[in-house]
Amino acid sequence: MNKRQATLEDVAKQAGVSQQTVSRVLNNPDIVSERTRNNVLGAMNTLNYVPNRSAQILAGKTLPTFGLLTTSLALHAPSQIASSFKRHAELVGYQVAISMLKTGRLSVLQSALNEFRAQKINSVVMSLPLEKADAETLVRDNPDMRQLFLDVPPAAEVCHLGFLHSDGTTSSVNLLLELGHRKFGLLAGPESSISARLRLACWRDTLYQAGIAETDTEYGDWSANSGWVKTVELFSRHPDITAMLVASDQMALGVISALRQLNKRIPQDVSVIGYDDTPDSQYFHPALTTVRQDFDLIGKRAVTHLLSMASQPQEAFNDLLPTTLVIRQSTGKPDAAGSESALVRQLKALVQQL
Ligand code: IPT
Question: Which NCBIfam families does the UniProt entry name for this protein (predicted)?
Answer without folding.
Answer: PRK09526.1 (NF007075)
